[in-house]
Design brief:
590 residues, Aminopeptidase, 3 domains, globular
Length: 590
């Protein structure tokens, strides 16, 4: 399999890497230092116009779409306790309070959220405190799961104590993209504010002395807004209908240089070098810049997945997200987002282009990963990161971008967060991986790495369920799929010297895309194809994950869960069986 991940067009790859230059991306970054790119704002429009003008100057075909996105944009917030007013920020999709605010008794939630964690999409509700009619005070960031949880527990409002001296902007809705009839009712209905750690310590000290009443004030601009969505297309010469989608968000909190001006600049430079070498491209490259990432919960990327869903389902080879590359002190490739079947490609691309070590991790339900329900193999989100020793020496806590710089989602995310040398190194990684996806005759995926992941997942869930659930149908179908994939790998050895467009090569690649359409969905989604998932953690093979809850379930819930698992095993086994049939049909054509 190793050969699949290596380049089959070394001369083109060398030409692409040698043509990389900091001139175009750094000029763009400097321009963006004066633009607060809030979605639907004049500054965001100016940023998109700048990108479109540069694409025109470089002769790159592009389209500026103007979709209506559902946004929630924070305007102001404060927290009042007695005669003390605390500085605060409200996350997108909190509610606007009446002029007098929302008041209530504060209740401390102990052990609920790790105060130094930025995993907004997962949490463990350890507290059994009665929060009905109360304002909860919680360590950490005000992400979607805790807000949804406390709202449903009857809380009147929520105060989140961020881990440092700065307050981080955020978003608290579980709705992914624009709401539809299936999910509009999940929009938050309580006010939420965030304060910094020193003020949080003062608040908790007051609470330790007795009952504390707090008043939350928040104002947001909410509704449907026309926003830009820019897509450049660089057409391939042999299979132009097949394409890779590489993308990132333009909108920002404040000037947002590390999140995500550096990503926008990376996309522009990739568009430039691939356009200049377009005669050597076998397949097409789409480069997209989104709006509504932060205040629309991935609004434009979800709109694109909706608007062009059939096109993506038929012909998208991979999606590559670019967010916060090239930041200060970011010199390691650890915990890089990648799906299992693409991890070999990602690791080899990093090794060949930089010589650095690589470790990957399962994609979070985050970023602009708006394409899982279509079933598209995916790699990258955040890329290079600060070494842990450096972060510890700086006294930093975990954040969700900026190469682990805690300027993320604050006013401090300015030009000093970008690093030109790190940006150029990361550009080499992206260009290398893209070149191989676009030009290697065989798509550089290893689905047996995914079946190995599935085996580990089944083992974990089966051990937790014991005799309560029968996982045998899923195990049997998975073993059959893995055997079929082994045969397909054998065929790949014979096809490796073929050309893009050969009938056997095409049959092999068609099978890989069909596999992704089945297996990505079964591993990352619960909803139907072309639907959206909530912005909460999706566990491995989510239909079977409730097996982990059986041990603590009461008599009634144990039987409910057993029924759920029976249906889940059927869904998973059928996906494995369908995938094995896809592989065997391809082998007949090859």
């Amino acid at each position: 399999m190793q050969a699949l991940f290596e380049t089959k067009n070394a001369s083109l790859e060398d030409a692409l890497l040698e043509s990389l230059s900091p001139d175009e991306p750094w000029s763009m970054i400097e321009r963006f230092t004066s633009l607060v790119r809030e979605s639907s704002s004049d500054d965001e429009r100016a940023a998109f116009n700048y990108l479109a003008e540069r694409l025109s100057a470089l002769g790159i075909p592009h389209t500026m779409h103007m979709p209506e996105l559902f946004l929630s944009v924070p305007v102001r917030a404060s927290l009042v306790v007695g005669d003390r007013s605390f500085r605060a920020k409200t996350p997108a999709f909190s509610i606007s309070t009446p002029a007098e605010g929302v008041s209530g008794e504060c209740v401390r939630i102990e052990g609920f959220a790790a105060g130094r964690s930025a995993d907004f999409f997962d949490f463990t509700p350890l507290s059994d405190v009665d929060v009905t009619g109360k304002i909860v005070v919680v360590d950490g960031f005000g992400g979607p799961p805790p807000v949804w949880y406390f709202q449903n527990k009857g809380a009147k409002g929520a105060i989140f104590i961020n881990p440092g001296v700065d307050i981080h902007w955020g978003i608290c809705t579980t709705i992914w993209g624009a709401p539809d009839l299936d999910n509009y009712q999940r929009q938050p209905t309580i006010p939420v504010v965030s304060i910094n750690r020193p003020d949080g310590e003062e608040l908790m000290a007051r609470m330790a002395q007795g009952t504390v009443e707090a008043t939350l004030h928040s104002k947001l601009k909410e509704g449907w807004f026309e926003c830009p969505c820019l897509v450049a297309e660089i057409e391939g010469t042999i299979e132009p209908e097949r394409f890779v989608l590489v993308h990132g968000h333009v909108d920002s909190w404040d000037v947002g240089i590390g999140d995500n001006a550096v990503g926008n600049a990376t996309l522009l430079e990739l568009a430039r070098i691939f356009h200049n070498n377009r005669d050597g491209l076998s397949r097409s490259l789409r480069v997209a810049w989104w709006s509504g990432h932060s205040t629309g919960r991935y609004g434009a990327s979800t709109w694109y997945a909706d608007q062009f869903g059939l096109d993506l389902a038929r012909d998208c080879i991979a999606q590559m997200n670019i967010d916060s590359p090239g930041c200060r002190w970011a010199t390691e490739y650890r915990g890089v987002t990648v799906m299992s079947e693409a991890e070999g490609l990602a690791a080899q691309s990093v090794k060949d282009s930089t010589g650095f070590a690589f470790s990957g991790e399962r994609p979070h339900q985050a970023g602009d990963y708006s394409f899982n329900n279509i079933g598209i193999s995916s790699l990258f989100m955040l890329l290079s990161s600060m070494p842990l020793a450096k972060a510890e020496a700086m006294g930093y806590y975990s954040v969700g971008g900026c190469g682990a710089n805690i300027a993320w989602h604050t006013e401090n995310d300015t030009l000093e967060i970008a690093d030109k040398d790190n940006l150029m190194r990361d550009l080499r990684v992206y260009a290398t991986a893209l070149q191989r996806l676009l030009n290697n005759p065989l798509h550089p995926y290893d689905f047996r790495a995914l079946t190995a992941e599935f085996k580990g997942t089944l083992d974990r869930y089966s051990a937790a369920a014991g005799a309560e659930a029968n996982f045998a149908p899923a195990y049997d179908a998975l073993a059959d799929l893995d055997a079929a994939l082994a045969d397909l790998q054998g065929a790949a050895a014979d096809l490796a010297e073929g050309e893009v467009g050969d009938a056997g090569v095409r049959a092999y690649n068609d099978a890989l895309l069909a596999l992704a359409r089945e297996l990505v969905r079964i591993n990352f989604t619960r909803q139907g194809r072309f639907r959206t998932e909530p912005a909460v953690r999706v566990p491995e093979l989510p239909d079977l994950a409730p097996a982990l809850d059986l041990a603590d379930a009461d008599h009634h819930m144990r039987r409910v869960t057993r029924t759920h698992l029976l249906r889940g095993v059927n869904r998973v086994a059928w996906a494995f069986e369908t995938s094995a049939n896809i592989v065997r049909a391809a082998l007949e054509e090859i």
